[in-house]
Amino acid sequence: MLGPQVSAPAVAHAFRTGTPMDSLTSKLPPLGQLGPFIALVIACAVFGATTERFFSGENFSLILQQVMVVGVIAIGQTLIILTAGIDLSCGMVMALGSIVMTKVAADLGLPAPLAVLCGIGVTALFGLVNGLLVTRIKLPPFIVTLGTFNIAFAITQLYSNAQTVTEVPEMMTWLGNTFSLAGTNVAYGTVLMIVLYLGTWFWLRETAAGRHVYAVGNNPEATRLVGIPTERVLLGVYVLAGVFYGIASLLAVSRTGVGDPNAGQTENLDAITAVVLGGTSLFGGRGVILGTLIGAVVVGVLRNGLTLMGVSSVYQVLITGILVILAVAIDQLSRKGGR
Amino acid sequence: MRFIPAALTAAALCALAAAAHAQAQPVIGLITKTETNPFFVKMKEGAAEAAKARGAKLLSGAGKTDGDNAGQVTAMENMIAAGAKTILITPSDSKAIVPAIRKAREKGVLVIALDSPTDPADATDALFATDNYQAGVLIGQYARAALAGKPAKIVTLDLFPGHPVGAQRHNGFLKGFGLVAPDAKSNELGKTPEVVCMADSFGDRAKGQTAMENCLQKAPDVNLVYTINEPAAAGAYNALKKAGKEKNVTIVSVDGGCQGIQDVGAGVIAATSQQYPLKMAAMGVEAGVEYAKTGKKPSGYTDTGVTLIAAKPMPGVDSKDVKTGAELCWGRK
Amino acid sequence: MATAKTVLQGRGIVKRYGNVTALDGADFELRAGEILAVIGDNGAGKSSLIKALSGATVPDAGEILLDGRPVQFRTPMDARRAGIECCYQDLAVAPAMTIAENLFLGRELRRPGLAGSALRMLDKKRMLEIAIQRMADLKVGIRSMTQAVETLSGGQRQCVAVARAAAFAEHVVILDEPTAALGVKEGNMVLELIRRVRDKGLAVILISHNMPHVFDIADRIHVARLGRRAAVLDPRKISMSDTVAVMTGAMAPEHIPAECLAH
């Protein structure tokens, strides 16, 4: 053999990386993941200090109820963004779901559980349509969901005749009811939201299917080459997101007590904001779902706290915008050897 | 055989005459903020009826969402290209639409704002709108009478910062209640010590509920809630009901949609100022036909009227009952 | 030198893409325990040949034999199941995921019992152990298997990709341009690793444009030209310039001196 011989110890030396300090900092979660939590703590501290009623069980329970619809939508949005996609139709699909389930119960007299399943079925169907357009026709998710956003809105308005559905069976609003926990009234819906987050977190971390979602977002070519059915993973993510939107529809109905065809107009951007604030990268493949929950809660805390302080809501929008930029900047900077 | 050239000439002359007649038919364009809001649906219905009655042709269009200025600009350009000599518009963005309106007026097109003014208001030839300030004053007067001398703890659920209609209704309410308030020209939301919390509802039911919940946390002893419109009022009622406070709080609102009138009848809303989109549109069509026929343009601001609807009349305040309100309401009955 | 057992063999492979004939009756022979370099100009058919052998494409005619038995690969998974692993030029790693995760990407191990079957939980501990072990076997000295692949240098990443292929292969490892885009030191690091893979008993197919590297580690050199096998050369006997001449067609196969041919 020609060429210089390279000895084994020399090769091993070339691999040795870093100092003892590196191994310590590598044990901490990256700044992108701690960030939203830090922001939440700071916000709570400020509001707790400047207002009387912020730090109370009742207030926190309220905030969780206020964010539970966007919170559950954001679970689906997180999954889609993890695959480097995006879903602009999520809010409208949620509104469609709530109209379907309330009208089907009011007009056709279906029992509440069946009506709810119909609503979730419709939202899952929209997820399927989004997924098929992305995987089979290979259209960019932004364009696809922009289209389905409009279609869902139109169907909602036509089917509901632009009228709010007020005849809602009591069982359907059960998630809005509260039970007493350590002296505070906690809504069942908020418990459901937290359970869904924990379940999705477990699925993403501990199962192969969940890890494949990350892999597809991080390098779809690689997943194809190692034999992972990339198209099937993507399709599954969009359908699963549709199911989450359907659950959010039920939460919206149980919170407001009606099926509102004008709901969901800003929920798409609200959900994306929660995902970004939570540290998930819009480029896909990186992020922790619990961060999204924190992101959603941060927005609710800001809104609640600023109202309690008597500050104009314009500042809520300003602060949210600044936090979003910070979140994205930290995500970019804290990754060694970026993309 | 010799008839053919004559027949052809006659046919051609007839076609020309028909075209000329069609040219004479006034073409009026109506551009609303969105296609689907029942308020604008009613407006479109009113305009279509008036157009049919006066032999005018109505083109209609809208933006995609509230705030979609570009969509309205496009609709305006298309309508003018299609021959519209009058444009009736409910501006989504009162400032951003002005350049497009100026261009249209330079072409000799009559532009009338409906429901809310442009900024500046004289960018259009005329304005047919509800006096939103007056709408606020009426419910403010009612609320004062309803409170019967009790010290007021007021929560206002507004639209969002900077919107002229939101400011006018809010300030009118304060004025009508007897408090110091900015005048009708101001875009700032007035505040007095009686106002214990102000929050934005975006005119949305769910967001109104959230806003009311947060204000309840700040001021649990609220007894009067002003809301920008009836969906926000419904959301506020929901929040109050969950807190068990709905019996002690008076809610007032503006709009007079059929759903809102139902809520007045159900005791959710104590009083609402009803406005008349149909009248705005009909008057707009009339003006358009007049302009096409005589070249006369309307000018200035014309109040299309607002009526206080309340289930329980209050002494010293003029109001109409729920039945009347239901007859005159807009939206699906 | 006694000829070793033939591990992978291709006879008369034909592959057409529309009007273009990429493989025109190509032959191929890979022996156990050797590093066979496959070289050829662009369009010579070397990637088509490799795709046919790794199951990425299905040949139109000809046969492939593995350990003497005819095999049909319809998908890359078929080839993998038969013990042939490919390491692609773009590495096929997910940069944000750890080395251990990337090693097991697509073949994750599940926990035993109910946790694995009902909850479908991954056995991360075992996968990490195996990753450490396999890397140690190949003397790849990366400190932590739990660091993200994107924190590694280009050469280290390449080693991870090569080691992944070697970890799961039973018979053959195919390496596509493994030292391209690497500097001298890192390139040599990868070559060392490839030698160790061969020493573990796997046969290695190395596709490369880098002549010095080819001459450094190949046992035999398969020259592809015009969709067929032009010659198999002995790098110890033939010069680099003559090899290039055979590759470009400047030197016809029949003019190659007999001692330069590999047997």
3D structure, described in words:
The complex is a heterotrimer of chains A (339), B (333) and C (263). Chain A is an all-alpha fold. Chain A has a domain at 65-264. Chain A is 71% helix and 2% strand. In chain A, strands 1-2 form a two-stranded antiparallel ribbon. Chain B has two domains: 3-130 and 277-298, Rossmann fold (3-Layer(aba) Sandwich); 132-275 and 308-328, Response regulator (Rossmann fold, 3-Layer(aba) Sandwich). Chain B has helices at 3-24, 38-54, 69-81, 98-106, 132-147, 164-177, 205-218, 230-242, 258-265, 277-294, 322-328; strands at 27-32, 57-62, 86-89, 110-114, 126-129, 154-158, 195-200, 224-227, 250-255, 271-275, 300-303, 306-310. In chain B, helix 4 links the parallel strand 3 (86-89) and strand 4 (110-114). The radius of gyration of chain B is 23 Å and the shape is elongated. Chain C contains nine helices and ten strands. Chain C is globular. In chain C, the strands form two sheets. Chain C has a six-stranded mixed beta sheet, sandwiched between helices. Chains A and B meet through helix 4, helix 7, helix 11 and helix 13 of A and strand 7, helix 7 and helix 8 of B.
CA-CA gap between termini of chain B? 63 Å
Strand coverage percent of chain B = 15-25%
Q: State the CATH architecture of the largest domain in chain B.
A: 3-Layer(aba) Sandwich
The number of domains of chain B: 2
Q: How helical, in percent, are the residues of chain C?
A: 25-40%
Largest sheet of chain B: 6 strands, parallel
User: Largest sheet of chain C, described in full?
Assistant: 6 strands, mixed
What percent of residues of chain B adopt helix (DSSP H or I)?
40-55%
Strand order of the largest sheet of chain B: 2-1-3-4-5-11
Describe, in short, the structure shown.
The complex is a heterotrimer of chains A (339), B (333) and C (263). With 339 residues, chain A is mainly alpha-helical. In chain A, 71% of the residues lie in helices and 2% in strands.
